[in-house]
Amino acid sequence: MSELVTPASEPAYVAKLALSAAPFNPLIEPALFYAGGQAGHRLNLLLHLVRASNKIANLVAEQGYGKSALLTQLQQRTGDEIRLCFVDGALHTELPAILGQCLIGLGVNSHDIDTAEDPLVVFKTRLQQLRQLSITPVMLVDNADQLAVALRTELATWIEWQGEQGFLLQAVIASSQPFVLPGTAQNRLQVVTLPAISENELSSYLMHRLNGVGFRGDSPFFDKDLKRIYQQSMGSPDRINQLAHQQLLGVKPVKPTLAVFDNWLAKMTMRWAGLSIVIVALLLLLLFQDTVNGWLTAESDNHAIDDTTVVIEEEADLPLVITEEQAERDELADLLAELPESNELEAEAAESMLVPVPVEKAQRPVAVVTPVETSPTVFDFLQKDWVMAQTASHYTFQLMGSWDRDEVHEFIEQYALVGDVAVFESMRNGQVWYVLVYGSFKNKQAALKASEGWPAPLNTLPSWLRRFDSVQQQIRDKAVISQ
After folding, report:
1. What's the pLDDT at 392?
2. Does residue 167 sit in the same domain as residue 52?
3. One domain for residues 166 and 233
4. 214: alpha, beta or left, given left = phi > 0 and alpha = psi -120 to 50?
5. CA-based, 20 to 30 A from 329: which of 163, 203, 461, 469?
6. Residues 112, 20 within the same domain
7. Long-range contacts for 20-26 (Cβ within 8 Å, ≥24 apart)?
8. Does residue 12 sit in the same domain as residue 84?
C-alpha cells in the first residue's frame, strides 16, 4: 500500500521510534519544512522579491516538489510590513470566491463585504489604504495552472492597478509550468524555479523530518535505502515521503514500474533529442563532404581572376563553458539584479513602513570599512546603545531582520561584515525581533554613493535605507523588557 495513513490511524513505527507524529505525512507541517537545501534558497529569494521589488514572483516546479509548502513558509516568515491573502486555484474556481478570499485576508470585515454594492471597489480601496500605511498587500496563488482564462484576465487587471505610490498589489503565483498573464502584467512576472532534492541532500532531509517529530538516534535509513529512495523518487519530496514511510513500515521494496521507466525514458529522450540532431547533421556533412567540396571548387573556378585577394579569417574565440552550478548562481544573481525601484516613503515610519532602497541606483549594502580577509566573530558588532547615540537625521541600511539571533550572526559571518555593524532587539507579535543595521551617513546621497563600492556577493542583496530617528523610535516603542 503506497498511501500514507491518516493521523487518526498512526503507523506502528511512530510508537516504536517514540515519535510525536508521523514524520512523512503528506499534510504540510510548517515545523517540518526543510530549509537546508534549494527550497530554503528559493524562500529567501521570494521574500526579497516581495519586500524589495514590484515583481510578481512565479514559483515553478513539478507536482509534488513542495510549492504549497513554500507558500506556507512564506506566510510564516513575513512580518507586519506585509499583508497576505491566499487563493487556491484548485478550490476557488469562481471570481466571487477569489475576491472574498482576498478581502478577508486583507482585513476587510464581513459586514463591509456583505453590504458592498461592488466588492471590487472595496478591494481596490483596501489596497490603497494599506499602501498609504506602508503595508504591502500580497496575494498568494497556489495551483495557478487550474485558473480559468477569464480568472487569469481578472487577476492581471488587479495586478496592473496603480496608485500614487505605484502598483497596489503584488503576488506570488505557484504553477507547474511558467505562468502567462494577459496584457502588460506579464512584464512584471519573474520566474523562480524550485528544483528537486539532490542525492546529497536526501539523508539530511529525512533526518530533519524525523527530528522534527522527536526522533533521537542514528538514521534508520542505510546507504542502500537512500540510494533506492533517490532512484525511485528522482528527488521529488512527495515521492520521497511515500518511500520513506513505506521503508519504516517494513514494506518490501518493489522494482520501478513500467510507468516510472517510461517517465525516465521520456525525460532522457527530450534531453538528448537536440544533441542527436546536431550529431546527425555532422554525419551527413561528412558523408557528402566530397560533393560539397566539388561544388565549392566549381564555383571558385567560375569566378577566378588573376589578381586574387586572400582574406585570412581571424581565429574565433573559444566558447565560454558554464557549469550547471555556475549557471544556477548566475540565474539567482540575475533575478535579484532585476528588482525594480520602489517608491520612497517618509523616514519617520516605523518598521512596518520600511523604505526599500531603489535597486537600480543602490542595491548593495554599504561598505563602511573595507572587508578584511579574515571573517569577524559573531560578537564583532555594535548594539542598540550605538544606534541610540547616532544623529536622528542620519541614515543607515537595514540588511535583515529575524526571529532567530543565530541567523543574524550567520549573516554577519557569511558576508564578513565589519565596521559600523549593529544588532538591536525589538518586540514584534509578542516575540523578540532581531534587526541588523549597517553604516551611518549624513544624507541619502552619501549612503547611496558609498553603497556603489560594495563588492560581490553582497551586491546581489537588496536592503532598506532608513533614518536613524525611525530606528530609534522603534527601539523605544517596542522595547524588549528583561525578565
Report:
1. 92
2. yes
3. no
4. left
5. 203
6. no
7. 20/213, 20/214, 21/213, 22/213, 22/245, 23/209, 23/210, 23/212, 23/213, 23/215, 23/244, 24/209, 24/241, 24/242, 24/244, 24/245, 24/248, 25/241, 26/238, 26/241
8. no
Q: Are residues 358 and 468 in the same domain?
A: yes
Q: Are residues 227 and 276 in the same domain?
A: no
Can you tell me which residue has the cell 560533393?
A: 291
Range of the domain at 282: 258-298
- Number of structural domains, the chain? 4
* Of the candidates 212, 51, 74, 205, the residue with the CA atom closest to the CA atom of residue 135: 51
Regions of the chain short of the pLDDT cut 70 = 1-9, 27-28, 252-276, 278, 280-380, 455-463, 482-483
In the structure grid, which three cell numbers stand for residue 370, read together? 573595507
Determine whether 230 is exposed, middle or buried from the number of CB atoms within 10 Å of its CB (0-12, 13-18, 19+).
buried
